[in-house]
Fold this protein.
Amino acid sequence: LTVLVGINGSGKSNLLDAPRFVAQALKDGLENAVEERYGFDSMLCDVGEPRGSLRIGLELEHSDWEAAYRIELAAPKHRPDEYAVRSEALEVFNKGSQARETLSKNSRGNVTSSWSGLDAPVRDKRSLTLFAVGGDARLEPIVDALRGIETYALFSEELRQPHKPSQRDYLAKF
């Protein structure tokens, strides 16, 4: 059990939503994940980032591999509806073969990969490459792990209200 505690606006909800956002973007597509969060502008307001960019990095460890996945989304300062993938990178280390493989996309939409024969179709600047190539058997375990990320949060109005301390002596029974 992990509990996050902090003052309002300190980033607790964003910390929980970042992996959920990546999972949804890899399941349903980036535009759907952004729209579910009321658009890119709303996402930027949530993180308090005035420059129009948002970065998320996740690291996964499995008995056979380790992976790091990072994305950066950006938009012109006064046109958040024109967001695009500024960068995307996946680095996988195979523990058995000691091989390190990479897949990356730059701000121009150019994709490079060290996996031989990986068909990484050129997609528009609003698409994640990993979403497009996730069916490749070599990437499937990593993509499945990222898509399977779930986080839970309690947002009960009762929990949000200030409470008076209980008068009970909880330590009396010890």
